Amino acid sequence: MPRGRYSLHDLHDHTPLGEEHFHCAPGPSGWRYVSQITTPSGDHAGSVDLAIDELGRPIRLELHASSWQVRGAAIDGVTWVRTDPTGSHATEGNVRAHTFTGTSPAFLIAATRLLRLTPGSPATRVRLVAFTDPVLAPRTIDQSWALLKSEAHATDNGPLMVDEYQVNALDTGEQHHIHIAGDVVLSAPGIELEHLETPPSTFP
């Protein structure tokens, strides 16, 4: 069960946004990721609980940030309920999208499990519902994903397979690269792996 810590940064000016303390593990029905998010000063800022099935579909998502809450799952596309800090107003949403995304590295792993790309294959288009900080506002976005290469890197625990993905935002044309080993993000825009207690899990 990988357990560790990511640092989160602003995509544009690299201002520290906090840290995400996580643990994750594959299971008989898929993969689960749980994390607590802290501010740069160490205060609690939110949490992520994401479970996906063996095909990569989100079977349960629960997000907390700034006292807002989102619960979601893959139902008729993706469906979610967003609750305000007072708990008195809940709004339901549904979009014909493939999965969810957000600032957590968990969503990048989930996307790779859903897409199952192979090196050299054509880029695959995917529609996502993004929950944007700080109030978890939903926004539908389109991206294309391509797996550029998979390389083995030597480590103390044996070779580690690292996948390099190229992700394009189809609305802005922005392009970035993501490096993933098993169920751990090594680097991505706004995300750095700072500490890892155990090696990444490998998916069957």
Structural account:
The longest helix is centred in the middle third of the chain and has 10 residues, at 106-115. The chain has 204 residues and is mainly beta. The radius of gyration is 16 Å and the shape is globular. A hairpin with a 6-residue loop joins strand 7 and strand 8. It has one helix and 15 strands; from the N terminus they run βββββββββαββββββ. It is 5% helix and 61% strand. It starts with a strand and ends in an 8-residue tail after the last strand. A 15-stranded mixed β-sheet has the order 8-7-6-5-4-3-2-1-15-14-13-12-11-10-9, covered by helices on one side. The mean pLDDT is 94.
How does the major sheet shape up?
15 strands, mixed
Mean residue pLDDT: 94
The main sheet orders its strands as: 8-7-6-5-4-3-2-1-15-14-13-12-11-10-9
Q: How many distinct helices?
A: 1
Distance between the termini: 15 Å
* Binned strand content: over 45%
The total of beta strands comes to 15
Shape assignment: globular
Features:
about 60% strand; globular; mainly beta; 15 strands; about 200 residues; single chain; 1 helix
What's a quick, concise take on this entry?
This protein has 204 residues and is mainly beta.
Topology summary:
Blueprint: E1 3-9, E2 16-27, E3 30-38, E4 44-53, E5 58-65, E6 68-73, E7 78-83, E8 90-95, E9 99-101, H1 106-115, E10 124-132, E11 137-155, E12 158-169, E13 175-181, E14 184-188, E15 191-196
Parallel strand pairs: 9-10
Antiparallel strand pairs: 1-2, 1-15, 2-3, 3-4, 4-5, 5-6, 6-7, 7-8, 10-11, 11-12, 12-13, 13-14, 14-15
